[in-house]
Amino acid sequence: MVQTFSLQNKVILITGGYGHLGKAITESLVYHGAKVYVLGRNESKFNEAFKNNDRINSELFFSECDISDTISIQRSFKGIHNDNNRIDVLINNAVYSKGQSPEYMTDEEWFNGIDGTLGSAFRCIREIIPYFKTLGKGKIVNVSSMYGVVAPQFEIYDDFPAFLNPPHYGAAKAGVIQLTKYYASYLGHMGINVNAVTPGPFPSDNVQKNTGFVTELKKKTSLNRIGAPEDLAGTFVFLASDASNFITGQNIIVDGGWTAK
Question: Exposed site from 48, 67, 104, 182, fewest CB < 10 Å?
Answer without folding.
Answer: 104
